[in-house]
Write a structure and sequence with these properties.
The chain is built from 17 helices and four strands. It has a two-stranded antiparallel ribbon with strand order 1-2. The chain folds into two domains: 205 residues, no CATH class; 153 residues, no CATH class. With 461 residues, the chain is mainly alpha-helical. Helix 14 runs antiparallel to helix 15 and helix 16 runs antiparallel to helix 17.
Amino acid sequence: MHETELPTTVARMGDEREAAQLEITQLSFWQGFWLPVTYMLRPTQFGELFREIPRAALAASVAVGTVFLLCAIGFSFWLGEAAAGGSAFHLDTGESPAETAATAGLVLLGIVGGFAFAMLCLSVLRFPDLHRSRSMFRTLARAFASSCSLVWLIACAVLVSSIVVVGVDSLVLRDTEFVVRNLEEDLGFAGIAVLYWSAVLWIRRFDRGISSQTATPVTDFLCEGCGYQLMPNHTNDVCPECGRSVTDSMTAEAIRQATAWEAQHNARGWLATSLACLRRPTATYASMPMREGMRLATSFAGITILAIVLGAVVWFAILMLIETATRSRTQIKWTEIATVSIIPGMAVSMIGWTLLRGVGGIVAIFIAWQGSLRDGRWFAKVLNYESCYLWLYCLFNGVWVSLMVFFSTPFNLFMGRVTGVHSIEGIPWGMVILLFGNAALLVIWLTRYGRTVRAIRWNNF
């Protein structure tokens, strides 16, 4: 077979996915260089081939892609200025040519640095799904390299988005009689949400391809109390480290049982599992089999996010209706309420998913740093079930924002009399308490999350 071809053999792995196993050991430089472009719309296959890209080819591809991204951003600004009737190339800034050049250089450096920082954050968010080996640094390096290879996709998304936004603004918003307040901003936010979830889906398929080529190490049988490596002659003994009966670890599989959601895929099972994970996380996770039921755990997280989105939309619509309850019924713009209410749902979905993945990634890195995370599969299952904690965020923010909508003035007066100041650095007391409350929930989640994972990290099943 010719060495320039990309032959693959397809093998079925379990019931969940098919993975392409490469028959060659390395791609050529130019094959690796153009792979992020040619496989842009085939993320799973791209992930399968990613480990075969030479490092020099990947570095060159990222560098050229970054230049292309800068050109795409510049073109989008020019297109926006042209659509607005101005010119992006004839701006009178009042600066000397040297100052203008220095400013342009700083802007370009900021864009490149911001891109690298964003890719680093993305690597942390993706860490739990990618972690299959004992080396945390190797996994993070692979996640960062694969994130940087998305520069071509991001540049194309910037170009397409700019063209679509300008087209919609020119052909629809200026020529239609049906104009809803802030419709342009709503459409822009909806576009951001579509791009966000498209990127999430793309990365999940990409990670699936990478994971299919990453062998999961065979782990020794450990004591579920302290992690001590058990030997066959310890079967009828106790653990030399913690004194726990070895039988507890050997027969732990017999006492594990699926969650209520895995046993019955309905609303009652979902609600019972959510309450159990919230109230008794350590006991719930310690009693469930961790290395099976991953698809159901993923669907649990998806349904939780969807339920939160629907709740946010309904809650915001009710707030708008109550606020306009003093008007006559003919003054209520139902179209506007229906349109604007979707925005909180889209925002909550993106914030919630990023928070879920970010907190999970941080906890996973700390646990892996201590050498306790042997296999990331069971941690990914915990990550999906921890989505139930987002309900506490929704409850706190929903109740507090509702109170501020109707009682902000009396509350600010009360806090002003108690503290002697009406705001902190111009920030109203209601917003200050909202920020501190969310920060407190985050600290509680990190503490609870880490304690729970440390308690079950020696899971054998």
